[in-house]
Amino acid sequence: MMNTNISYYHNKQEYRLFVKQSYSSLLKLKNQGDKKAFNTLVLKILPTLRNYINRGLNVFISQGHFSKGKYKGDDIIDQLFIEIFEHIEDVKHEDDFYAWLYLKTDQLMEDIKVEEEFNDLFFKNIDNYSKPEWDAMEEKYTKDADGDLLLIEELSDSSYNHNDYDLKPVFIEDNEVAFIEKIDKHLKQDTLKSHTAFVINNLPFAMRHVFELFTNEHLSLEEIAIVRKSTIEDVKQLLHDAKRALQVSLFNRYLNN
Fold it and tell me: Looking at the domain assignment, is residue 120 inside a domain?
């Protein structure tokens, strides 16, 4: 056992030295604009971080933050490539590069965890939000979401019509049709689009995914089940939950006078 630990530590030390030595090369490659060579070198320093990420994801799954298979290590690795390329100048010395990589990895992991916690809380409390709370949440969302702010403000622009939800084909049951007609009568289209985008973007991923495939991409329930490697019953329930969340939010914010 002792020999195994020594060997492992020795390999880790070699890996740490390689990461340190890669720092100046990466800076040089970025300054030269050689992104292909930059990514090739980054790829050589990522295997240990991939294991670290996978262990972290397993912990999140075991703690119930999200379901197995929702996130893959490669998703975070892809984002880590971007973070390294865009922010490597933040590292002041090669000795700091090794720890900085773990810092960036932890930040990406924490972002996922926080988003999942917010989405879950958002959906669980959607019945109880009042109009002032909806207004405050969306105002904060538009201020803090960077790129998402553009999506909301530019929904009328045809280049962003991928988030221009057409709700009439979604709400087709008798009671739903009456509801949508009432909404159309009371709300301007820009207001409806903005609120819909805000609510859908903050639903748990599975609901958002099903709603967008059904609404924007016009996939059938059977096709969505294939895409999600799920059952039609699960897809129906997720679509039902997303629709109900949107109905409740619209009612509480705009019709509950």
Answer: no
